[in-house]
Amino acid sequence: MRHIPNLLTLLRMLLTVPLAWLLRNGRFDAALLLALFAGLSDALDGYLAKRFSWQSELGGLLDPVADKLLLLACFLGLADAGALPWWLALLVLGRDVIIVAGAVAYHNLVGPLHAAPSYLSKLTTVLQILLVLATLLHLSRFAEWPQWLNQWLLAAVAVATLASGLDYIARWSLKAWRETHSQRGRPQ
To answer: Where are the transmembrane segments (predicted)?
Structure first.
């Protein structure tokens, strides 16, 4: 039973493929439903892990990966469909590539990485999710959605994504610099 949260996370990762296919084929109603299902599974696996103390190191690693895969599939799929600008999809992708590359570099060059997302990073993720859902809602037959709201969310996501990426670079560069300089002063 304690592996249910990890299984839900793996399911979310697998949902990336059909979600990308639905977006590629303009099936926005089904893509919206699948994205909502993925969000509910994310909430459920988090609830179960906390409620029954089923947290695991593997789950802690896989959960953000699953979230990022789904978000990237949505941004790239919506850009491919012409619903979001390519520059925004590439900005979102670039930020995530920089974060992963920085984490790998830090781990290999400095030492073990114990990172927790910043408030700005969490805000960025929430805004990205809202933009994806708002865009899918706008494209679906389920409801009318004001285009100005999508434009506002688009601008907010662009600013938050850029700020969050720069924040990660600055914070972790400074941390790496401090750590490497403090190691030089330690006796061998």
So the answer is: 7-24, 30-49, 152-170
Encode pLDDT of 28-72 as tens digits: 999 999 999 998 998 898 889 888 888 888 888 888 889 999 999
**121-141 pLDDT, tens per residue?**
999 999 999 999 999 998 988
Q: What is the pLDDT of residues 136-163, one digit of tens each?
A: 998 988 877 788 888 999 999 999 999 9
Cα 124 to its chain centre, rounded Å, is: 9
CATH number at residue 52: 1.20.120.1760
Please, where are the H alpha helices in the chain?
Answer: 4-14, 16-24, 28-51, 57-80, 86-109, 119-139, 147-184
**Alpha carbons 72 and 69: distance in angstroms, whole number:** 5
User: Per the structure, how many domains does the chain have?
Assistant: 1
Tokens of 168: 């990660």
82: left (phi over 0), alpha (psi -120 to 50) or beta: left
